[in-house]
From TrEMBL:
Catalyzed chemical reaction(s): O-phospho-L-threonyl-[protein] + H2O = L-threonyl-[protein] + phosphate
Gene Ontology terms: cellular component: cytoplasm; nucleus
One Pfam match: Metallophos
GO molecular function: protein serine/threonine phosphatase activity
E.C. number: 3.1.3.16
Gene: WBGene00205971
Designated name of the protein: Serine/threonine-protein phosphatase
Species name: Pristionchus pacificus
Coiled-coil stretches noted in the UniProt entry, renumbered to this chain: none
Amino acid sequence: MGNTLSDSSSATSGDIWDIWTKDEEEEARQLAREYGIACTVTDGAAGGNDPTGVSVSATGAATATAGAPAADAAPQPQFSAAMLEAMAMDPPYADDLCGLEPDPNEEWEECPPSPRIKESRLTPEERAKYLGLLDQIFHPDTILGVRVDFDPNDVAEVCDNVIPYLESEPMLIEDVPFDITIVADLHGQLYDLNIVFKAEERDGKKGWENMKFLFLGDYVDRGRQSLEIVMALYCIKMLYPDRIFLLRGNHEYVSLNMKGGFALELFDRYSEEDWPQVYSKVNESFCYLSIAAIVGNSYLCVHAGISMHAFTRRHLLAIQKPVLEDKKDLLIHDAEWSDPVIGLKGSTYNGMRKCSVLFGLDELAFALYNMGCTTLFRGHSIMNHGFEIIGGMCISLFTATGTKNFNDGAVAIIDADGKLSFRIIKCSPERVALVNKLRRRDGGVVDVEDDCLTVEDDSGDGETLNLWRKK
C-alpha cells in the first residue's frame, strides 16, 4: 500500500505497522501469509525500539525477500483495461462507482430526463375553460373576499392536468432566466396575489403574459382563499408553462396543511362527501412540485434554506418525483424548514421551529459555492417590511401582508441583466379587519402557529423574535 519495509531499529510508536505485543506476532505472520505482506522478524534485544522484534510492511508479496515472490502470496486480482482506466481517474473511481467496473460490456445507456414542458398542451376547449376560471378568480368580488364555488370535478380535473407539467420539471429547475419576479409566501391571500399580477399589466395584457414569475411556495393555510390561489396558479401554469415556475413550501404537505387551515377551509366550502376528495386531489398535485430553482445560473431559490446533507445540484437533480413527505429526506426537509442566523458559525438544531437546522453565513457561503451560485432567495419567515438582505448573500422575502403585526409584503424583481429591485406591498389595516371579520363568519379562525417566525429590524419594539441575531 505504499509503505516501505521497516525494521525494529527504525520503527516508532507512530508507525501503524508496528506490532506491540508478543501475542500479536503470530497474527502478523498469518496476515503476511494471507495477503502477501512482507514480514521481517528481528531480534528485539539488538537495540531496536520494537519490543516484539516484529515489523510488518505493506510493500507487497513481490518484494518480500530480495525481490522474490513470497511462498504463500495471495493471487493478485486481474483488472480489465477499463477498470485500470477508471482507477486512474481523478477523483478515484471508488468515489463515484463504489469500486464497480464501469460498464464492462458497454451495455449501459444514457437516460437523460425528459425535457420540461415549455408549450401549452391544452385543447381549445380546455384553454377556454381555464381562462374562464381565471376570470372568476380575479373578479372584483372574489378579490374582496367572495369565494368561488368551484365544482369538485373541475378542481380534480385541473389538478390531474397540471401534474404532467410539474412532473416534467426536475426537482432543481436550472434554466430559469433573468427578467423574472420572485414571489414568496402567499398563504391563501388572493388580494396580495392580485396586486402582484396587476403591477405587471400593460398593453391590455395580464401580468402573467408580460412577466415571468417564480413562486417560492406556501400557497395555502392561514388565509381564506387558498383554493383560489392554487387554482389560479395551476391554470396559468398550463396556459403559459414557461412563464410561471412553482416551488414547494413546507405548507404544501399534508402533515402541516391538515392543521394549518387548508383542510378547515375546504371543510367549510364543501359537503362532507366532497371535501376529502378535493383535499386529497390538491395534495396529490403538491407532490410533483419542485424544491429549488436557479435563476440566471446565479441565484439559488428555495422556500426556506440550505441543508447540511449533500446540498449540491447533482443530489437535488437525483431526487425523483412524487415526494409524499419531506421528513423522509433530510435534504428536502432542510430546504423546506431551515433558517439563517447571523453570528452563528456552522449549524445547529433549529429549536425555534422544533425541527431542521439553523445555519450560519459560513455554511451558506459553502453551499452557494457548491451550487455555483452567488445569492440565496428564500421565503418562510415573516418580514415586517417585506424583505431583508442578510450578509449580502441571502435575501428573505414575504409577500402576504398583514399576517402578523400588520407586516408589509414584497416581491423581488430581477431584470434582464440580473440587477435586483424590490416592490413593496403596503399592508392595509382596513383590509386586515375585513379578512378577520370574514374569517369569524366562516366559523373557523386559524391563528398563526409556532412555525411562523417574524423578523423585525433593530428599531422595532415589542416581543417580536429577531431571527437573524443570535442571542
